[in-house]
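Fold description:
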Amino acid sequence: MMSRFLEIFAEYIRENGGKVFTVAEIRGNELPEKIEIKENNASQNVYSISKMYTVTAIGVLWDRGLLKLDDTVVNILGDECPEGYEPYWNETTVDMLMRHMTGFPGGFDTDVLDGSTYDPDYLKEIMLKKWVCPPETEKHYEDANYYILSRIVNKVSGKPLLQFCWENIFLPLSFKEAAWSCCPKGHAIGATGLYIRVEDMVKLGAVYLNNGEYRGKRIVSSEWVEKVLEREYEFKPNGIKDSYNKGGLYGQELLVIPRENRVVGWQGYNNQPDGPDLTRFAAEYCIE
């Protein structure tokens, strides 16, 4: 029997002009349910929700003792760093990257900018740019930070981010399919460009809802979950009950509602600033 919430939420979206393709929900430790609102491709670009998967990959490495959050970019990447790199990278840690506390000046965004203008070596493209301020002084939300994290996962694990996620996140969560946009050298962007199904997307929310587990499978430690929520590594409280979420460009959403013991996610394409407040509706809904 279809979740009552999904039926009501879908009706609300239709009546209020929400530009949503599909919605999925997980309640407690149950399997995800999905409702289709508009005909669409099975997998969609979740844009910046991709960052939560990179965060989780870092968490797997942290749990295994393979890296520390105060390890610096240059110490990890070593001779992969291009000659003449911005010296502030010597001070920049894994923690700073996940909190966007770098002084990177912008201009790296594969969603909206022309990637053909970049140096084919994206690490060089990013690390040679002069910063606008030292690390840990101002927050600059930058996709470049997460491309660096993608390279860090590769360096530490010996496997590209996408392969590492398949082995340690996607397969344990029984993903049906996944693809990730890559740079010319084959490294996943890390910040965006992850194509997955909505019913799989919500499974990562369930991992964080259930202290690092999904249906009895341990993905990350409860200590990592606590650290992610405490330091606001992408997942952030939204002021609606006790819920927290991560959004992506054009209206993607992954919403965790601990008080209701459930996760809701949706995919769509909304390039307009106005529209129904889907996050509030979903977070405030009380299960009967």
In short: Residues 143-157 form the longest helix (15 residues).
